[in-house]
Design goal:
This protein is globular. The chain has one domain: Aldolase class I (TIM Barrel). Strand 3, helix 1 (about 50-60) and strand 4 form a beta-alpha-beta unit. The chain is of the alpha/beta class. The longest helix is centred in the middle third of the chain and has 14 residues, at about 140-155. The strands form two sheets. Strands 9-10-11-8-7-6-5-4-3-12-13-14 form a twelve-stranded mixed sheet. About 30% of the residues lie in helices and about 15% in strands. The chain starts with 7 loop residues before the first strand and ends with a helix. The chain binds S-adenosylmethionine (SAM) and iron/sulfur cluster.
């Protein structure tokens, strides 16, 4: 094991202590903002193995990372995910392992994940109306997702958050219903502006764009929102509702660029270290993991070296053109 006690700081002085690891590019949904209807997924041999993912987790912790989020694709379709959570949760120095899921398999996985050490979980839910849900995810699976959310509420996670991408003429009239749903369960909800990742054909992104300010005004029709300094280490700006436990957050990659405080790196399912969500710069960590199996120093040095090449930020425009050709499932959302 490496003895380095280094920290990750980029050339703009931003300290990195948060990594999102994508464990697969596959998914049982085909959300319209994330994937095309027909997708070609990576051959399995190109994915990082569970051992490689665990080793990478250890390397990041050696470099001062405090929080790892497992994502995808859909992380719960990856075989061995519970064991991976268990091995990452056991890493000394890591404060937290979290996971983002579409919820379709949570009825089965809520308890095993909680027992494996997962403390926080994010579940994506864009609509409570079955037909709409099916239109946005291209899968008719709302009942499974709602049952999955019930299962995590019952399993006693420390923090549960719903993530909803808001799109005009898709689900913008459901914002209040989604806040009510989260409030009734004492859980957080964050509304996300759609990002221009991958070429989509099902909708016009410029038309579908709903700014966080518009969504906040919709919430304020029924709730008092008090700005909060709470942070969960991510880009959500949180508001509290008096006398309520669940918070309302807004993730605004377009309207409130959060690059200056960006504390995170992403690793794709094939082991590419992405230095920025909105730029193409990346480093092939899989090649190093496979060239030097069991030796973490080569990977750690490559990550340290990459800090000098981290871009200042993204420049998402609001027109329909995709600014980044990879889809979110490749990126590790
Ligand atoms: N499959 C899991 C899920 O849906 O939660 C994890 C991966 S998914 C890529 C992670 C998050 O990215 C989801 O909350 C999803 O809504 C969001 N997402 C995907 N594509 C997006 C896009 N183009 N713009 C904004 N958010 C997006
Ligand atoms: Fe799958 Fe998540 Fe992308 Fe939807 S957002 S297609 S659930 S990876």
């Amino acid at each position: 094991m490496s003895q380095t006690q280094k920290t990750l700081v980029d050339s703009f002085g931003r300290k990195i202590d948060y990594v999102r690891l994508s464990v697969t590019d596959r998914c049982d949904f085909r959300c319209v903002y994330c994937m095309a209807e027909e997708m070609k997924f990576l051959p399995r041999a190109q994915l990082l193995t569970l051992e490689e993912l665990a080793s990478l987790g250890q390397s990041f912790v050696n470099l001062g990372v405090k929080k790892i989020r497992l994502t995808g694709g859909e992380p719960l379709v990856r075989r061995g995910i519970v064991e991976l959570v268990e091995s990452l949760s056991a890493l000394p120095g890591l404060d937290e392992v979290t996971l983002t899921t579409n919820g379709s398999q949570l009825s089965k996985f809520a308890m095993p994940l909680q027992r494996a050490g997962l403390k926080r979980i994010n579940i994506s839910l864009d609509s409570l109306v079955p037909g709409r849900f099916a239109r946005m995810t291209r899968r008719d699976m709302l009942p499974q997702v709602l049952a999955g959310i019930d299962a995590v509420v019952d399993a006693g996670f420390e923090r549960i958050k719903i993530n909803s991408v808001v799109m005009r003429d898709h689900n913008d009239d459901e914002v209040l219903a989604l806040v009510d749903y989260a409030q009734e369960r004492d859980i957080d909800i964050s509304f996300i502006e759609e990002m221009p990742l991958g070429q989509v054909t099902s909708h016009n992104r410029e038309h579908a764009y709903c700014s966080s300010d518009d969504v906040r005004r919709l919430v304020e029709k029924a709730y008092t929102l008090l700005p909060s300094t709470d942070t969960t280490g991510g880009p959500s700006r949180y508001y509290r509702i008096p006398e309520r436990k669940g918070r309302v957050g807004f993730i605004s990659p377009h309207s409130h660029n959060f690059c200056d405080s960006c504390n995170r790196l992403r690793v794709t399912a094939e082991g590419r270290l992405l230095l920025c969500l909105g730029q193409e710069n990346s480093v092939d960590l899989r090649a190093l993991l496979r060239r030097y199996p069991g030796e973490q120093i080569a990977v750690e040095n490559a990550i340290l070296e990459a800090m000098m090449h981290r871009p200042e930020g993204h420049q998402f425009a609001q027109d329909d053109a995709p600014q980044i050709l990879r889809f979110m499932n490749m990126t590790g959302g």
